[in-house]
Amino acid sequence: MFGPDxxxxxxPRCSNLGDELDATRVHxxxxxxxxxxxxxxxxDRLIAYKGRMGWQFPYxxxxxxxxxxxxxxxxxxxxxxEMPEVKGMFNxxxxxxxxxxxxxxxxxxxxxxxxxxxxxxxxxxxxxxxPTR
Length: 133
What we know:
Number of strands: 4
Helix content: 40-55%
Shape: globular
Mean pLDDT: 74
């Protein structure tokens, strides 16, 4: 949802999912299940965004750790390029991540993700995917 270098906000699809999580939590808690979300951005940015969105679910930062990579929850640029679904998303972003009147141009978040994925100075990138039908 929130990469460590994002400047313009979070992924709109992930944010929409976040809006639905609080209602679900009560049912999960009754079944002794805990829902927790993480992002790779610094915690101060996550707390501010969570407050702005009015979310109540636990939201933690993995900034500066290998946690998301150790558990296969984030991809290195090399891993992202090896996955046809992710590579396709970078090459042809979903409509919701494009800008312009016809939404044909990639958004700045998509352009930023592409730049991070192809930049040799960046060791890691975060991918946000939405299942397609």
